[in-house]
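Translate structure to sequence.
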């Protein structure tokens, strides 16, 4: 059974793209997956992430404080500014601009840990960076969205912070507490965590594509290009900064992946809750999720062939 779930999880991009295509051509099959389903699905995947973490993961920060600080600062400076720059340089219309900035202001995505492993980067650092950026997303995501997207649309930063807290901080902390107090229970439930996350974001993608099919059809090219530009900037600048600061190759790869790969599911969910009148805002999260997996997969394939010391 474990082998089957591993196989299923490894084909995550296939399920994601397949359901998105089906939902685009036949929206009725996924229109039932509305905002309520989106919210609880993502919360469940965050709980699964928490169940895989132990208190030892938090202590890892002591062993590499400089790398953690660099990665965290890069995550919440390079990417939000890259989102704002993408919106400005491409002259994006308000809905898409808000979506791109929201995606860029979100924490690192869980898929980054797998990409880090494949790219021979520092997996322990990747896990810690994903954890800390997720735990503090309730502050940084609404803050950057308010500052950078406020010119396009009114942003209720307090409400956005509360929803981000419900979607990220609360379920992750609950999962960590269960792992601490009931490790055996956490083992049993947590084993399904990666599969729940795959199903959650795949269904979130399908639901948002179905609800935004008309807008996506009209703006497909600019959506894809905006997502491509955003994540190329994230991966590229995220790699260059550690290299310029003379960090080891494995650290540079890890920071690049963490900066370049965002939690598109969280962005799409928050957009669905807060910018419902702008379907392109949620669609940006969907395109981001697909594009970052493509770029991350290509980067991992290249780096896998090169020793980290190179």
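Result:
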């Amino acid at each position: 059974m474990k082998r089957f779930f591993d196989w299923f999880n490894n084909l995550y991009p296939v399920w994601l793209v397949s359901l998105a295509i089906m939902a685009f051509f036949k929206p009725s099959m996924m229109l039932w997956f509305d905002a309520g389903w989106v919210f609880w699905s993502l919360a469940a995947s965050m709980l699964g992430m928490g169940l895989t973490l132990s208190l030892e993961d938090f202590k890892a920060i002591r062993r590499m404080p400089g790398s953690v600080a660099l990665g965290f600062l890069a995550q919440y400076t390079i990417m939000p500014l890259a989102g704002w720059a993408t919106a400005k340089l491409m002259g994006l219309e308000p809905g898409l601009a808000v979506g791109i900035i929201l995606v860029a202001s979100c924490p690192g995505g869980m898929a980054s840990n797998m990409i880090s492993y494949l790219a021979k980067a520092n997996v322990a650092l990747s896990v810690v960076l994903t954890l800390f950026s997720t735990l503090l997303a309730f502050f940084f995501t609404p803050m950057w969205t308010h500052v950078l997207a406020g010119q396009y649309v009114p942003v209720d930063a307090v409400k956005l912070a509360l929803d981000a807290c419900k979607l990220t901080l609360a379920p992750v902390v609950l999962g960590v507490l269960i792992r601490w107090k009931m490790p055996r229970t956490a083992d049993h439930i947590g084993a399904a965590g990666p599969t729940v996350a795959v199903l959650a974001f795949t269904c979130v993608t399908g639901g948002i594509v179905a609800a935004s099919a008309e807008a996506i059809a009209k703006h497909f090219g600019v959506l894809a290009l905006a997502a491509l530009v955003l994540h190329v900037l994230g991966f590229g600048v995220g790699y260059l900064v550690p290299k310029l600061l003379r960090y080891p190759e494995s650290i540079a790869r890890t920071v690049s992946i963490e900066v370049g790969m965002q939690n598109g599911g969280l962005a799409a969910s928050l957009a669905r809750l807060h910018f419902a009148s702008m379907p392109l805002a949620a669609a940006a999260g969907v395109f981001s999720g697909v594009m970052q997996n493509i770029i991350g997969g290509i980067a991992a394939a290249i780096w896998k062939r090169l020793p980290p010391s190179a």
